[in-house]
Amino acid sequence: xxxxxxxxxxxxxxxxxxxxxxxxxxxxxxxxxxxxxxxxxxxxxxxxxxxxxxxxxxxxxxxxxxxxxxxxxxxxxxxxxxxxxxxxxxxxxxxxxxxxxxxxxxxxxxxxxxxxxxxxxxxxxxxxxxxxxxxxxxxxxxxxxxxxxxxxxxxxxxxxx
Amino acid sequence: xxxxxxxxxxxxxxxxxxxxxxxxxxxxxxxxxxxxxxxxxxxxxxxxxxxxxxxxxxxxxxxxxxxxxxxxxxxxxxxxxxxxxxxxxxxxxxxxxxxxxxxxxxxxxxxxxxxxxxxxxxxxxxxxxxxxxxxxxxxxxxxxxxxxx
Lengths: 161, 149
Prior knowledge:
The structure holds 2 protein chains of 2 kinds. Chain A is mainly α. Helices cover 76% and strands 5% of the residues of chain A. Chain A has 3 domains: 5-57, no CATH class; 68-112, no CATH class; 114-161. The radius of gyration of chain A is 49 Å and the shape is rod-shaped. Chain B is mostly helical. Chain B has 2 domains: 16-79; 95-146, Arc Repressor Mutant, subunit A (Orthogonal Bundle). Chain B starts with 15 loop residues before the first helix and ends with a helix. The chains are: A mainly alpha, B mainly alpha. At the A-B interface, helix 1, helix 2, helix 3 and helix 4 of A face helix 1, helix 2, helix 3 and helix 7 of B.
């Protein structure tokens, strides 16, 4: 206790080896622990005797700063959650809007919802082409029959020389 | 963050006001001894108390020390490592330091305010480490005795 070890320890300049020694002595010898605690209290009392009253308003300044930091930390912690939740919901919604699920033999495939209108247009055009083709086919057949009839008529009307 | 900021009922004594009332004046006196400029010391006081509040949540984390003050002082010393003025003696009105002789005052102030090591001071003062350590102990003992401890 008289070696000056406690003093270097409470002054915060003890080496690692000295700190270990102090901690060991504290455990092993209650009187050492008591003396160390007393020294710590005396250092606090010494600091108190050297105290300088802080300026008026310093506490309010500190409280305001701490509250601001607290609020900033809270908003930083909350913001990613909100963003994350929003992103996930948004992605889910856009996924539903933009894609329809189509089953195939092997596995599922996703295609853009815009293709729905293309498929509808192709289907309608297909029907139109089919109807047109049938119409012209019938028209053509009718025309062929008329030509055939006309030819027969002409043959009958033409005098045999 | 301190309990007061977290709106914990005031039954818990360790809120920022309690902490401020107990340590702000001591800390300002200590910072004054380091930076030797009252205005700067006041600015540092706010910054250090806030940093300590944020970092340590008002709890003593260093189990080596029983005293919150010692931890706060160490914290302030580390924060002000680059702000300390390397003059021979800090400006102190305190009578406690006047109890010490020049060598003791030099050693005590270099360690207390600037955190100089025993080996560094032994080298600078061209003395044995044990002699420096002994002078430190003597200076602390003198001030303790003067206070009736």
